[in-house]
Amino acid sequence: LSFNYVEWFIVLYIIAAYLRLHPIKKFQSNKFCGLALLISLVCSWATVIWGAWRYDISGKVAWYKYVADSNAIFALTTAIFAFLFFKNLKIKHSKIINTISASAFGVLLIHAASDTMRQWLWTDTLQNTLFFNSDYLAIHAIASVLGIYIICTLIDFMRIHLLEVPFFHWFDSKKNKMYVKERR
User: Fold this and answer.
1) CA 94 from chain center: how many Å?
2) Pseudo-torsion of CA 91, 96, 108, 28, nearest 10°?
3) What is the value of pTM for the model shown?
4) Which tens digits make up the pLDDT trace of 20-58?
């Protein structure tokens, strides 16, 4: 199957919604979900290391089949068990966490919804391929991801406050006027 990132986000959202509505007893244990998340992450990392080792030995490009894209098996299991792990944590209400998480879909749409944006962002601007054999690979990877998430969250936050909130205020006022007319 071939999914784009938005479709895959929707699939993960449906799976998460199903797991919230129809909980599986085993998945209510944070110990189990944490261990499953750790195993999934280790398997993901192992396939990447295996692919690099295979490339060094054979010279053939090793496609990281199980983690190469968002709809790979280890990406799916990591996403599901990360969701279940954090769902089961007893965290107090946090306005900061809710504000940041409210923009997660917006971040996805801004930075990964088109090939043109991915090309411009990851290849032209951040020049990721220059860092593959660099001593600064880890720093570049972490700083790039954090920077993009922060910038896209700020853009989406501005969209919410400059467009969405005023639009819904306007829409609610029109809807209320229609409701008052209907009642007369």
Assistant:
1) 20
2) 10
3) 0.65
4) 888 888 888 989 999 999 999 998 888 878 777 877 788
